[in-house]
Amino acid sequence: MRNNENCIAIYSRKSKFTGKGESIGNQVELCKEYIKVHYGEEALRDAVIYEDEGFSGGNLNRPAFKEMMTAVKERKHKAIIVYRLDRISRNISDFSGLIEELSYLNVAFISIREQFDTGSPMGRAMMYIASVFSQLERETIAERIRDNMHELAKTGRWLGGTTPTGYASESVKSITVDGKTKKACKLKIIPQEIEIIKTIFDVFVETNSLTITEAELMRRRLFTKNNKHFTRFAIKAILQNPVYMIADEDAYRYFQEQGADLFSDREVFDGTYGIMAYNRTDQEKGKTTVYLPIDKWIVSVGGHKGVIPGKVWVQVQKSLEQNKSKSFRRPRSNEALLTGLLFCRCGSRMYPKMTQRMTADGKRIYTYVCKMKERSQKSVCDGKNVNGNTLDMAVVEQIKRLEEDRENFIRLLEQSRKFYTSNHDQYDTQLISLRQEQEEKTQKINGLVDSLTEVGDGSAKSHIAKRIEELHRECEAIDARIQELERLTSQQELSDVEFNMLRQLLSVFRDSIDEMSIEQKRAAIRTVVRKVVWDGTNVHVILFGAAEGDISDTLRESKTHRGADSK
Fold it and tell me: How far is Cα of residue 533 from the mean position of the Cα atoms in its chain?
């Protein structure tokens, strides 16, 4: 975009794709007409259009909007024009902050529908008033969604989405709610998976440890639906999920004591079915999912079989809460230089584990430990630990020596040149795959958007909207990867300037590394080293630019094994 402080920005947004009514195209055309009448033909020619299609007005986390605001901060626009106020946001906080920022930047905000222009004090005042009504509408919708959740809680139905491990979703012909018949789904048990769930609860009750439970699942070769090892986080999520809980007397008493919104009578908690809990999370696009306290939950008896007695489930929750206070806290800072670069022979990262012992020169002694070895308690990986102080020193010294072998280093730099060009075919294949995946997700979004018109204002609408937002986030991540690969494929080779700079790196490294701070040393190593692999005996240092299988140098056992821990 050319730098033009007289340029006007046109912003349009629509939550779903449609060619009717206030579509993206219609909004833009109305804004263009406004510019033509009030600013003239020249301003219209220079106008820049920003479009966000398929994004809600709940927050400002939208790609085109962010791009526009970056241009505004760079003084490339003198005004922003929208067709209607809520095209920007329905949130008062977001909107008022935006208006204040635009006022500070001396950029006008114009809404055609409401005939507001922040170029005048009255226009700014009226803009705030209108935004209040926009947020009121949003909060009214949220209240209606909660009312719908209350109605759903009476049925104990499954609302869709990813099913919890141990269950699958099955359609039931009808469920009667206040005399009305609706199609619905409920959960049914997957025998093999539910046995894993029972094992997880049994092991945790016996050991009172997420770490030991994780290791035991690895030892027994029990995997997730995606054929991966269970992590402590996944195990904790399973243990905290009330869907596995049998709706019995203990369950009823627990939820009553915790202040949950109970929508099933006490008599229904007869030990036959499981628990369904609604409103457990607060999910907002662009933000991490927040788990709500139990007094915010809407709880009812579901149509599925529970597998964990209420007394056991409640005991597990108390244990998890108690374990919070004694959980391990990793030191915020340490002397380790290879964190993030060092890998075990099994492919897992190795991290520094600090000890209370000190070296002769007063530095804390630390050991690099394989994460998989720790997680599985040696059942998956039993590789040797390695003394971190010795390893870091050996790697630094070996990199220093590379500068002395000028011919070898030139060869390595030539490999760096090839690294950028030899992967083009691989990048192109990945690009094709990513673009196909992006297209498929876009089609899913369009299909879900179309279905919104058929579900009315029921709770299903909010769940469809959340799924659309999830798909948008996935599309954004794919788009970022596409841009990264396109950037790599555009680099045909290292420029002469970059090549010469790399040639000088090792000289600087050799002369200055000993005087650097810990942070500076880490940064310096990362300009030269791409990866370090510990195979239990030798350490392989892979320099920047080398292919994955190329080992640029090997530190022999005699240099590092003396300080290795053979646990």
Answer: 28
Q: Write out 44-93 in H/E/C secondary structure.
A: HHHCEEEEEECCCCCCCCCHHHHHHHHHHHCCCCCEEEECCHHHCCCCHH
Distances (CA, A) of 29 to 36, 81, 114, 526: 11, 12, 17, 51
Joined tokens for residue 213: 């439970």
pLDDT at 262: 85
CA atoms within 13 A on the CB side of 264: 30
Q: Rounded to whole angstroms, how far apart are CA atoms 27 and 41?
A: 18
pLDDT in tens, 424-456: 556 667 778 888 888 888 888 877 777 766 666
Instruction: Give CA 144 to chain center in angstroms.
Output: 29
For the chain, which ranges sit under pLDDT 50? 1-4, 17-21, 285-286, 328-332, 416-417, 419-423, 491-495, 498, 545-567
CA pair distance 185, 155, nearest whole angstrom: 10
Structure-token pair, residue 192: 């093999």
- DSSP track, 261-321: EE-S-GGG-SSSSBEEEES-EE--TTS--EEPPGGG-EEEE-SS---B-HHHHHHHHHHHH
Strands, sheet with 539-543, edge to edge from the N-terminal-most edge strand: 342-344, 529-534, 539-543, 553-555
Quote the CA–CA distance of 475 and 437 in Å, as a whole number. 9
Which pLDDT tens digit goes with each residue over 313-328?
999 999 898 877 555 4
pLDDT score at 171:
78
**Would you state the pLDDT for residue 228?**
86
Strand partners, 531: 542
Helix 232-240 to helix 210-219 angle, to the nearest 10 degrees? 110
Q: Is 392 left (phi over 0), alpha (psi -120 to 50) or beta?
A: alpha
The model's pTM: 0.48
Please check whether residue 297 is in contact with residue 264, taking contact to mean a CB–CB distance below 8 angstroms: no
